[in-house]
């Protein structure tokens, strides 16, 4: 994509239009079309996407927002940024995502929104989440930062709730050459508020009239131009990840580890990460590293045990499935360019590491 990226750079530099211009508008309409939503608003990063979407759906300071503890810290940060309190529920150990039945129990009169996180690129059971939120009359905002292009019942994730939030951090399935994010929605009002908030709360046709206290959270034209190029390859890249995941599955069969469960009930995952679970995770990770294979941990400390969220009052033992995952998850290398022989080499190395005791 190098040549295309250089062309894009020259085009944007030639126009001298770096902020709120044609490239951004073009990317927004292309990404909205890709997702199958009416509107897309480009923002500066995924965290801002969640924060501004929460404000746009009416989450006010002093309310509660239900999400999971087994996620990247940004989900909870965005809730805090709007002045709301994160209420953290445990995950379903099979999907490693939000357990809908626990959301039902956590809903109270203070609940202003629910954030299901499509972690590792696997769609949360959106039929159950939709039904629970509908009956509780609470909007939900999807954190789809790891799930660009993932599907549920034939529709793309991000289009089920009041808004869908994406990050274009370089390592995500759709990544910019720097930071970026977007909110997709079918609700014109939500789109208009996010559009205003990302640009100092400005009115649609009068940038000097500030209707609300906003922020500087625009997606810039250069990143938008790069994202347009990469968007064309997203389906192919996701297919590559699917093939890589299925080869991992075949090559790791029979080992004393837990593989990610297969897609269930209409879900179509995009394998942002390929996460196995195992005992002695840290020993095996170090042994892999010595063989030149870098495996990650997403995430070693859940939100409810992070120092920054200590005031929420959770203690170890509160979310047992989440805490067990934090001790056992290991992310094997997966990316659109990974080759068959590399996957087989990782699988072989993992076999050896599991066979040799500490
Ligand atoms: C990456 C990520 C975010 C935040 O995106 P940034 O662009 O880094 O701000 C939010 N939620 C999840 C689940 C993520 O993986």
Please explain how this structure is put together.
The chain has 358 residues and is of the alpha+beta class. It is built from 11 helices and 16 strands. Helix 1 (2-15) packs antiparallel against helix 8 (221-251), helix 2 (22-35) runs parallel beside helix 8 (221-251) and helix 8 packs across helix 11 (340-355). Bound molecules: pyridoxal-5'-phosphate.
What's the helical proportion of residues? 25-40%
The low-confidence parts are: none
Largest sheet: 4 strands, mixed
Enumerate the distinct ligands: pyridoxal-5'-phosphate
Quaternary state reads single chain
Largest beta sheet: strand ordering: 1-11-10-7
Query: Secondary-structure element order, as H and E?
Result: HHEHEHEEEHEHEEEEEHEEHEEHHEH
Shape: globular
Instruction: Report the span from N to C terminus.
Output: 44 Å
> Helix tally?
11
Number of strands: 16
> Structural class of the secondary structure composition?
alpha+beta
């Amino acid at each position: 994509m190098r040549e295309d990226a250089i062309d894009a750079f020259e085009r944007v530099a030639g126009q001298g239009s770096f902020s709120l211009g044609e490239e951004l508008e073009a990317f927004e309409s292309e990404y909205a079309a890709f997702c199958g939503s009416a509107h897309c608003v480009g923002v500066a990063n995924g965290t801002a996407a969640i924060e501004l979407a929460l404000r746009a759906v009416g989450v006010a300071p002093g309310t509660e927002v239900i999400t999971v503890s087994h996620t990247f810290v940004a989900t909870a940060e965005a809730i805090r940024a709007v002045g709301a309190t994160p209420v953290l529920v445990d995950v379903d150990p099979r999907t490693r995502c939000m357990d809908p039945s626990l959301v039902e129990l956590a809903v109270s009169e203070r609940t202003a929104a629910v954030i299901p996180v499509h972690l590792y690129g696997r769609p949360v059971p959106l039929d159950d989440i939709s039904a629970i939120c509908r009956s509780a009359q609470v909007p939900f905002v999807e954190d789809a930062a790891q799930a660009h292009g993932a599907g549920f019942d034939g529709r793309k994730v991000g289009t089920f709730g009041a808004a869908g939030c994406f990050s274009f951090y370089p390592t995500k399935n759709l990544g910019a050459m720097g930071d970026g994010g977007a909110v997709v929605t079918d609700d014109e009002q939500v789109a208009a508020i996010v559009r205003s908030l990302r640009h100092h709360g400005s009115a649609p046709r009068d940038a000097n009239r500030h209707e609300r206290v906003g922020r500087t959270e625009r997606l810039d034209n250069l990143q938008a131009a790069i994202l347009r190029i990469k968007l064309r390859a997203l389906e192919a890249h996701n297919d590559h990840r699917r093939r890589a995941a299925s080869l991992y599955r075949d090559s790791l069969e029979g080992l004393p580890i837990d593989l990610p469960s297969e897609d269930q009930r209409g879900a179509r995952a995009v394998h942002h990460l390929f996460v196995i679970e195992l005992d002695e995770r840290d020993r095996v990770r170090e042994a892999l590293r010595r063989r030149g294979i870098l495996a990650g941990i997403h995430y070693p400390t859940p939100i409810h045990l992070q120092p920054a969220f200590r005031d929420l009052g959770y203690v170890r033992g509160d979310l047992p499935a989440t805490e067990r995952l934090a001790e056992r998850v290991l992310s094997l290398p997966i990316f659109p360019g990974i080759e068959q022989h590399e996957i087989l080499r990782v699988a072989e190395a993992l076999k050896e590491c599991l066979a040799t005791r500490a």
